[in-house]
Structure formats: structure tokens, C-alpha cells
Amino acid sequence: MWELSARWLELPHYIIPKLSDVFLSMWKTRGLLGKHALYTLQEALLGLAVSLVFGVLLAVWVEGSSLARRVLYPLVIASQTIPIVALSPIMVMWFGYSIWSKVAVVVLFTFFPITVNTVDGFRQTDAATLELMRTMGAGRRQIFLKLKVPSALPAFFTGLKVAATFSIGGATIGEWLGAESGLGMYTKRSSGMLRADAVFAGVLLLSVMGILLFLAARLLEKKVLERGRRSTL
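The structure assignment produced for this chain is given below.
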């Protein structure tokens, strides 16, 4: 439909190029696109890893400390009332145009879903099972590792899948604000030169990367949850 509409309606190539032209552009610039894609992927994975570590640690802290639950968790929720795009220039001011400014923007996008979903997962612990373990003499550590962590895993992976797709968008926005490499920078420069075929090529590649990260997170979820089910049998 994209290809035929662009041909029949005779749309200007700088508005909506033919899909065949987009694929042709991807092929002609495959080396350059591959270089920029790897840079963007590196930013996304670094930011996702930072969010994963600190998001899970904060969720564990909130679960184990009533003070953190009353003080820190509301701040995490309130942080989402600030437009992340508005905070992105601050990251550039702090970290410059290095890769870390883009990683920081990715963290802004991915930290929240990981933290909130993990906290909600801990809250989904079955109350009857919890009470049973306590009556059988289980300590806090045993309850946490053998009951709360398995109960939180489905919600945690939901947050991880959301964060995985958000990470590509965060890296792209960070590159728009200032970068020397990356697909965000590539699409921005191509847009300034009215090269719509190159812009759409970059956008399609960004979409594919987001889908692949989502599928990787889902595969990890399947492996971990299946192993957990087998260990309980």
C-alpha cells in the first residue's frame, strides 16, 4: 500500500518516498547505517543496564523499608510528571556530547517502568502463602528469595520489555540534541537535507532494533520463568 500509494498519488519524494526507494537507500548506505545503528544500540543497552541495576535495587529497598516506601517511591512517581524531553538538554549540559549524555537520557526513559513494575510485582505476593511460610518459621531472607522474588518476576519482565522498547527512543532523542554518531543524528541530518528516503530508512531501522530488544527481553522472560517452574516441580 505504501509503494502503490506513493506511485499513484505521485507524492513528492521529499514528503513520502516510495518504499522501494527507502530500501534502496538502506542498501546503498548499509555500511554507514550499520555503524550508526551499532552506536545507538550501544547507548540503549548501556542505559538499559544502568536502569536495570538501580531500578531493581530501588524496588528491593522500597519493598524492605517502610521509610523508602513513604519517601522515595512517591518521588519516583512524581518524577514522571516532568517531561523527559525537557530534561534531556540538562543531561547534555552535565555530560556534554559524549555517549554518557545519551545513556543518561535512556535511563530517564527506562528507569521508571522497571522500578514501578518490580515494586508492583512484590506487592502481588500471595498473602496466604506468606502467612504459611511465617508460621513454618521462615525468616525475612527466605521469604524474600523463595516467595517475593518469584512472585515479582512476571511484573519485572513486563517492565523490562517496556523499557527495552523505550531505550531506543531515548537514545534517539539524546542524539537529536547533540551527537557525532547514531541513527538519531543520521535521521536529523538527512531531514535537514530533505532526504526523506534516508530518514525513513533510519526510522525503519530504529523500529527493527526496538522490536529485536523486545523479543530478546521476552525470550529471557520465557527462559527464566520456565526454569523457575521446573525448579518448583
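Interim note for the steering committee: The chain is about 85% helix and 0% strand. The mean pLDDT is 87.
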